[in-house]
Specification:
The structure holds 2 protein chains of 2 kinds. Chain A is built from 13 helices and 16 strands. By secondary structure, chain A is an alpha/beta fold. Chain B has a single domain, classed as Peroxisomal Thiolase, Chain A, domain 1, CATH 3.40.47. In chain B, strands 1, 2, 4, 5, 6, 8, 9, 10, 11, 12 and 13 form an 11-stranded mixed β-sheet that branches. The chains are: A alpha/beta, B alpha+beta. Strand 6 of chain A pairs antiparallel with strand 5 of chain B.
């Protein structure tokens, strides 16, 4: 059998499994809710929101989990008050489990304390929210200290005197990736990547590169839960989040003239990537193909992009080039569309530069009006939604688009889903610190 | 550039940037390494009972000229951006827009510094109040600097390197403490070998002078290893690319690999400690110039070796990149095969001219 390769002679990267969790639910239910225009955004009840610019979030409130053990029972009970990294870990586990099951890698899913024989034939690439302190931890440690002085000296004394923290290992960045790598027996040490809000896309890009280098498969996970009090304050201070809190479902308005910030969200997604021929050989269903990945760093500013859009344009063009497609072959753009004044303006400008006159033939939607901004997971979450769009030939709506912005010249899929034969999609992800990463997906029919 | 799995290309190191407690740049580090009795520089007092290896005093503005840039960074970013600038200078690509546009950054990082004074102020105001959560938003909004978060985000060492030095190929940051420092080098080498890139800027930075980091390490039983401030970056490129632009290699990387996940259990403190104990050693006969180096008891197959952590402190993500810069230096001065071993392993060889 001749090896299936792309136009550049490289192995083709197939998607054979997907898992998805957002505030709208899991898997298929999530997709249905997206098409129905439902919103996952609601008032935050986990902590007080007084004085915060944004008091809403797209939280995952359904205490998930298939796994039955003590640790997870605890997580279920304490879901809303758990350390964010704990939720990150569990959502990552759930979506990876779903993706591996869909791909037919059931062998690696058995609970295996002793049996280490069943190995997933690839590495783990993961984008996960940062491991960091939350205030309940500071308060607990501090309480255990003594004396008048407050701060790190006191907390360090308390810890040296025996004060422990249940989730101390969640402060280490290796904990969640290692846990997931061990859970699913992926090969070698996992790579945990951060490119801010482009991280989920970069995790997939790393998997694509590994398969093109000869790996049989890759497990790519994006998972984020950053809904804690200090995070809300930080984004408030940067004026990055939406002040439109009432009604919550109208808080995130991608590309609308009245947009004023993003809505923070929890969510996760996982993809099983495989060498196309290896997937075919084991009889796996090909859900789509990752045709290309492209990135470009910006040099302009920590939170803003080059006024001429050159870095966003470069990332999109690099992904199209890598995919071996021209702009007029793109049927649809799943936009980053955060609902911040800056991102949406710059993304529209950059799309116009890349697509030229053809741009008005390319429907654009952002899912963030419904599911908010899942931050480090966004690129992975939107990759799954893009592949579902290809599968169903229906584009989910860009919700809360009511007042067109004269500076945004795009065919927005406004408020209603749109039927269209979609074979090739461009999915954009852009992050603070000049991080820009784009992915091109296709149905994979071109390789049949 | 077609990437294909069978395209094994030679990988060269063409630029080194180092800052640490022992100085700045190659000469200072070579002198420190080859001194008769190399002594670590340790500050026992400032963070007692945690001794740290403080950063050698450097003038950040030499590599980060804009005050606005310096203001929007904390020290871990300043140290890293400085070391990255040294490496770009050393490789002769600083300011060369065409080369910088195809240069990919792979940094390793965790979180940046918190503001210890702000945290202490907030904790003092919350003290003994059972309804502390009600006050927290107000206190944080008042006490956190708006730009502080920009100093804490993991990707904003790489982001600042792009902004300050105009490196615009790609920008990726790997997380995961020590192992991330190995993976950034491994990933660059794999991509070069497969034709997925030609030119990379790879490295990390650590600031030991931060109590929030001491707290994380103490909570995880990792505080008995003194932390060291350091920044270490390498310019790594394909031999073809280096030859075409007339760049001289310090060394070629013959192999690099991160250890398997079974040794990475962060719960297993002894394991981790052992594995972070990176040593540089000659695989073959002991060359004369290494004779003055600190001896480590843990070197079985190595005739003479430096224990990096003894001399520089522990740099977490930066530990392996620091080891790589030092091993490269040793290789370029002396030749032979230099092995760096710990949680990952690398082998360097002098390029035959």
């Amino acid at each position: 059998m001749t090896k299936t390769t792309d136009k550049q002679g490289r192995p083709v990267v197939a998607v054979t499994g997907m898992g998805l969790i957002t505030a709208l639910g899991k898997g298929q239910a999530n997709w249905t809710a997206l098409l129905e225009g439902k919103s996952g955004i609601k008032p935050i009840t986990r902590f007080p929101t007084d004085q915060l610019r944004s008091s809403v979030a797209a939280t995952v409130d359904e205490p998930l989990t298939r796994k039955q053990n003590r640790q997870y029972e605890q997580a279920r009970k304490e879901w809303g008050t758990a350390h964010c990294v704990q939720r990150t870990k569990i959502m990552g586990w759930e979506t990876a489990f779903a993706a591996l099951r869909m791909a037919g890698f059931d062998d690696v899913l058995v609970e295996r304390d002793n049996n280490k024989d069943d190995i997933f034939p690839g590495s783990l690439f993961i984008a996960a929210s940062p491991s960091e302190f939350e205030w309940p931890q500071f308060v607990d440690i501090s309480k255990a200290g003594s004396g008048e002085s407050m701060g790190y000296g006191r907390m360090l004394d308390a810890v040296r005197n025996g004060e422990k923290l249940d989730d101390a290992d969640l402060m280490l960045f290796a904990t969640v990736p290692n846990y997931l790598a061990k859970s699913f027996n992926t090969q070698g040490p996992p790579i945990s990547v951060c490119t801010a809000c482009a991280s989920g896309a970069t995790a997939i890009g790393l998997g694509v590169e590994a398969i093109r280098r000869g790996d049989k498969a890759a497990l790519c996970i994006g998972t984020d839960s950053t809904v804690h009090q200090e995070a809300m304050v930080r984004f408030s201070l940067l004026s990055a989040v939406s002040p439109h809190n009432d009604p919550p479902e109208a808080a995130s308005r991608p590309f609308d003239k009245t947009r004023a910030g993003f809505v923070i969200a929890e969510g996760a997604a996982a993809l099983v990537l495989e060498d196309y021929d290896a997937a075919k050989a084991r009889g796996a269903e090909i859900l789509g193909v990752v045709r290309g990945y492209g990135e470009r760093a910006d040099t302009f500013h920590r939170t803003r992009s080059m006024p001429d859009g050159s870095a966003m344009i470069g990332a999109m063009e690099n992904s199209l080039k890598d995919a071996g497609v021209t702009p007029d072959e793109i049927d649809h753009v799943n936009a980053h569309g955060t609902s911040t004044p800056e991102n949406d303006k710059m993304e529209a400008l950059s799309l116009n530069a890349v697509f030229g006159d053809h741009i008005m033939n390319v429907p654009v939607c952002s899912n963030k009006g419904q599911i908010g901004h899942t931050l480090l997971a966004a690129g992975t979450v939107e990759a799954v939604i893009s592949l579902l769009t290809i599968k169903h030939n229906i584009i989910p709506p860009n919700m809360n688009y009511h007042t067109p912005d004269p500076n945004i010249n795009l065919d927005i899929v406004a408020n209603e889903p749109r039927q269209k034969n979609v074979n090739i999609i461009l999915s954009n992800s852009f992050g603070f610190g000049g991080q820009n990463a784009c992915l091109v997906f296709s149905s994979g029919k071109e390789y049949e | 550039m077609a990437d294909s799995p069978n395209n094994d290309r030679e990988v060269w190191i063409t630029g080194i940037g180092i800052v640490s407690s022992l100085g700045e740049g190659l000469d200072a580090h070579w002198q420190a390494l080859t001194a008769d009795n190399p002594k670590p520089v340790v500050d026992e007092k400032s963070f007692a009972p945690y001794p740290i290896h403080p950063l050698f005093e450097i003038d950040f503005s030499k590599q980060i000229p804009k005050r606005g840039d310096l203001r929007q960074m904390e020290d871990w970013q300043r140290i890293g951006t400085y070391a990255a600038g040294l490496a770009l200078d050393d490789a002769g690509i600083k300011g060369d827009e065409e080369l910088l546009a195809k240069c990919h950054i792979i940094a390793a990082a965790g979180n940046g510094e918190r503001d210890p004074e702000a945290d202490a102020t907030v904790l003092a105001a919350l003290k003994d109040d059972p309804n502390w959560r009600e006050k927290l938003n107000d206190l944080l909004l008042t006490n956190l600097r708006p730009t502080l978060y920009l100093a804490q985000q993991t990707q904003l060492l790489a982001g600042n390197i792009s902004i300050v030095h105009k490196v615009t190929g790609g920008s990726r940051t790997f997380k995961g403490e020590e192992i991330a420092g190995v993976q950034i080098v491994e990933n660059a080498v794999q991509r070069i070998q497969a034709g997925q890139g030609e030119l990379f800027l790879v490295g990390a930075a650590n600031n030991a002078a931060r109590p929030d980091l001491h707290l994380i390490r103490e909570l995880n039983g990792l505080a008995d290893r003194s932390l060291g401030s350091m920044g270490a970056f390498l310019v790594i490129e394909s031999a073809e690319h280096a030859k075409a632009r007339g760049a001289k290699p310090y060394a070629k990387i013959s192999s690099v690999a991160a250890a398997g996940q079974e040794v990475m259990s962060v719960r297993s403190v002894n394991d981790l400690e052992h594995k972070t104990d990176w040593t540089i050693g000659h695989v073959n006969a002991p060359p004369v110039f290494l004779s003055g180096l600190a001896k480590s008891e843990k070197t079985q197959d190595q005739l003479s070796a430096i224990n990096i952590a003894d001399l520089f402190g522990h740099g977490i993500e930066s530990q392996f990149p620091l080891g790589m810069t030092l091993a490269t230096l040793v290789c370029s001065k002396g030749g032979g095969q230099i092995q760096l071993s710990g949680l990952g392993r690398a082998m360097l060889e002098k390029v035959k001219s």
